[in-house]
Amino acid sequence: MPFDPRSLAPNTPGYVVQNIERAESAIIDGLGKAGVATVHEAQGRIGLLSSHMRPIYAGALIAGSAVTISSPPGDNWMLHVAIEQLQEGDVLVLSPTSPCDDGYFGDLLATSAMARGCRGLIIDGGVRDTKDLQEMGFPVWSKAVCAQGTVKETLGSVNVPVVCAGALIEPGDVIVADDDGVCVVKRNRAAAVLTKAEERVANEEAKRQRLASGELGLDIYGMRERLAEKGLKYV
Amino acid sequence: MPFDPRSLAPNTPGYVVQNIERAESAIIDGLGKAGVATVHEAQGRIGLLSSHMRPIYAGALIAGSAVTISSPPGDNWMLHVAIEQLQEGDVLVLSPTSPCDDGYFGDLLATSAMARGCRGLIIDGGVRDTKDLQEMGFPVWSKAVCAQGTVKETLGSVNVPVVCAGALIEPGDVIVADDDGVCVVKRNRAAAVLTKAEERVANEEAKRQRLASGELGLDIYGMRERLAEKGLKYV
Amino acid sequence: MPFDPRSLAPNTPGYVVQNIERAESAIIDGLGKAGVATVHEAQGRIGLLSSHMRPIYAGALIAGSAVTISSPPGDNWMLHVAIEQLQEGDVLVLSPTSPCDDGYFGDLLATSAMARGCRGLIIDGGVRDTKDLQEMGFPVWSKAVCAQGTVKETLGSVNVPVVCAGALIEPGDVIVADDDGVCVVKRNRAAAVLTKAEERVANEEAKRQRLASGELGLDIYGMRERLAEKGLKYV
Amino acid sequence: MPFDPRSLAPNTPGYVVQNIERAESAIIDGLGKAGVATVHEAQGRIGLLSSHMRPIYAGALIAGSAVTISSPPGDNWMLHVAIEQLQEGDVLVLSPTSPCDDGYFGDLLATSAMARGCRGLIIDGGVRDTKDLQEMGFPVWSKAVCAQGTVKETLGSVNVPVVCAGALIEPGDVIVADDDGVCVVKRNRAAAVLTKAEERVANEEAKRQRLASGELGLDIYGMRERLAEKGLKYV
Amino acid sequence: MPFDPRSLAPNTPGYVVQNIERAESAIIDGLGKAGVATVHEAQGRIGLLSSHMRPIYAGALIAGSAVTISSPPGDNWMLHVAIEQLQEGDVLVLSPTSPCDDGYFGDLLATSAMARGCRGLIIDGGVRDTKDLQEMGFPVWSKAVCAQGTVKETLGSVNVPVVCAGALIEPGDVIVADDDGVCVVKRNRAAAVLTKAEERVANEEAKRQRLASGELGLDIYGMRERLAEKGLKYV
Amino acid sequence: MPFDPRSLAPNTPGYVVQNIERAESAIIDGLGKAGVATVHEAQGRIGLLSSHMRPIYAGALIAGSAVTISSPPGDNWMLHVAIEQLQEGDVLVLSPTSPCDDGYFGDLLATSAMARGCRGLIIDGGVRDTKDLQEMGFPVWSKAVCAQGTVKETLGSVNVPVVCAGALIEPGDVIVADDDGVCVVKRNRAAAVLTKAEERVANEEAKRQRLASGELGLDIYGMRERLAEKGLKYV
Asked: Cβ–Cβ of B227/C81 closer than 8 Å?
């Protein structure tokens, strides 16, 4: 029986979990196409990371399987360990064990991660070499941009559950990220969420056309009666 | 006698004021041309919203009449109500009744607002679908970008006075917004402020040429004597 | 003996130091070419300004000699005084004496500074007219963008040591700034730091190629043994 | 006809309004007795200042008539002007025209204000000499405690409308402040709000006894049916 | 087989889990006696909530079993639902589904919670009536103190896993809180953590005496050699 | 010639400077008696640390000679090194090399520091065991209270210049701290600043009596004429 990383408390230090399960790539790509806002709605408004997580450049859109990293403040040793665990289509997710804006990641690590098929980095900390990263097409969502370097002295973990920017992320969960932020979908819910997301997209397209023609949401959604019941006064 | 929304305390819930007065469109457009920094100076350095209000994309410049919205945290019901009140050239201004970064507004609401001639949104909260909004050319100045959705359960108000990002905004006031931020001009002062803003623009152009030629502000503004009186020591 | 501005306590008001020493321009330009992250590493991870200092537009990269300004909150009088002290290749560095986001600087001051060869502004406060500044090609790293103007009433100082965004900056120190942030290099260490930065750039290029080919940092840096000694468990 | 300060835009500089209307002292004292949370609920959940406004010491509870001050950042000149306008039972309310944490107020100004019957200070900025102020029994609600002094160079205003910590406050409005924060009640609504607040206090006392005896809010407020309708699942 | 709340994604709305397992009360009380800093060290420096969680009054120290609440912003309906689920020795833990400082909890809810044996509240939001709460001896650790009230309109959940102030908390986990902050211990690790915490307390007492007598940590912990190896220079 | 720590750039790692000069104890104690606000004014409004530095308990007042520490984020090794350098009457001053709220210091280190005559700690980071520290009478001014522990892996420095909370502090400078915050006085200016501080105290006492009797600052300071010149309108 493979080791179950979910049995570890979030951010437990000292472990590298090597065999993690991932969602099917067609599902992952489908979620990526739907985008963060739609996926977040489709799964019942859960799983969003804090809005302080911002892309280092506009326009990127990714989805992939989370390879998680728990790192001490100012120490990026575990990033090197994590890169060995990457597979094509993965996304690195780094959570410092206490708040830290240091630049854990730059163009050399990105070169290494891209060589292994990594699609991007989600980091509740800092990143540097942002101009190079944009030229390389390696997207990052981070709390800060900061040139401050890090040391390699203290163990953290790779592929244990982490709390990152206010969301629980377990290894192999699906990460979706775009200009609106970052959302996590539990691996075993990914197929169901995709179905709902696609329904939502179809449904929205019909509404968009009605709204574009000047019809009001008040009428499309039938809100007038309930507003009156609540006592809204037009004066 | 029409209902005077100014008789209501800011953010009083439960009202939709339907007939609001607006400034003349020529004045509004003139203020837009002058831009935020100039308008703010021209009216005596008042009316600026907090600097945490940032555009979702660079380069937009709008001016319009405020249609104000007071909304509970995490509840965007009143946005649907407000869209019905929009006229060509209006700007939506949303103030949550307590701090909230949720994404109150996205591409569907923008489609509806644009269908009624709305020029943009000022929101002391969050917005989502920012990539779509940029493609649609619908500018937003907000406190946050956030995919977190909202509910439609609790009444707020439309076209009552609101305090938004530190400024009092009354329905029909003129909003000017560009990369420097957002400024409000009282409706009944708009013409006077425009006159001063235009004087200021003309005056600045002359100074710009002198400064570009290498002349110093110390000399143009005659500051040397007063600096010496204050005791400035050159060493 | 020329007045030594380093004898003054940081932000001492009332002084303009006129003759400051600068580093050689070849050294300054070399540091600029290396960029902030490399320079910061090369000098032992010191001298970085706080990560709240962000460029008003992406892609700028400058290096220059600091002309420092200590200013009261909401008062930009000393900027006019400082511009007279600028030489070709200088960078303005403004530190308010208490936190303030007001827009101390806009397009007119930029016009004047550019006429004297100034390469940019570092300000732990606010700036305005950012669209104009970008069109003029005058880069600014600031804490805020804010249209709020300032007065000209109270003395500060020019070319005294200042603490700006968490770093001590003395007049004539070398400032390097790019998308990753802002770093200061002591004038008398600039040549030594450049040597180390250039070694670092060369060294990184070799590593980049190995990493791009799929070799792991774990192996290139020989980390596996030490990780095992620390007790890292692969499961 | 006396000058109506409400005709001025918030924070308009250069005015001292000398004759302001105040609420009756019995009403003011009644509101003080009810406390901030009750008053805020009683007037429909409006008028609360931002929660960053904290008391410098616990346990104080005041109510009084607002004497408002609009001050430039780092400039407390208008405080001296305002003290002359104080009457027995007034509360000073200071709003900087841009964010500033400087210590505008200390024990000397408190001595002067107390000599004129002032009950406390509400300041969206900084205060100093806090130990002395506590010993004197002069309560302050502020954004910051900061020893940084201020200058006296630039005009603001006294008794014009101000936006302070996110709330519109007009001269003569009733201020209530305690450990829960600060609330403003429009002068002409004060009597009506007091009536509702007193009803609320009576009503709460009955509920408190039922809850203390172990009865559940679910039953007292009859919530079970509506929760079931909304679909709450007990598992 | 009882429903396993751990099968739900954090903050899944719409559920009340009624039968949760708790740790033994002797273990809980032992952890409380050790205090937050010791417990946090004893379990390997994990489980600490963000340092923005502060007690509303100094000196309180509690430990108890978590009854968790996931609530929409500005909506405290689920608190009423949660109180029914309380047992003697429990601690309420509330996580808003998006950041919100509103005052979800005050003296009436505290009266009800105390009637059921609740030991305190951990809330990543706001609380009000703090003076009453202190007089009642009901401790709260919160992000904010805020008089702003809430509505009762939208479902959340009770006793599902929540991410609260950066930590994953599952129903029945042990919460320890004192002036240093708040820490969560997984229920099934509580006994083991207590053992380590008690060892730590004993060990610390011996060290305290040596340090008090003037012996240096450098010698007690044998640090001098390793510092020399790292290259520390005494000058 | 003793090593001059001032020749090192702020926060240069790897050094312990053993012989530092201190101000005379009578001067230090005099400055402590004057308090932070007075000392800060007396030296021309410079040297104040950021207002985010707050005491862990109210009422403490200290003055002493700075023993400075530069520490990596999440690493308190240098505190142990610094304690050996303490002399009777010293104050520890710790500046992390990048922002970090971790609890670098607790009751064991305080026991050790007190055994060597240390008067308190100034730390732009976190502290824990605050209840114990208060009982021991060991005051701390910090950015955060946080139970998160630290490691001992990476060198920093002791008694090099540091930038701490926005102020440059050199070893042996005089630190004054009370409820209003923390101020640094350059060692070689301490005597002069004391003289001015004492004049200021005497002067303030006279003013306090006049103000207490109801005389106005407007008259005592002769402000009326200048206000009129600036154009202040009484209406």
From this structure: yes
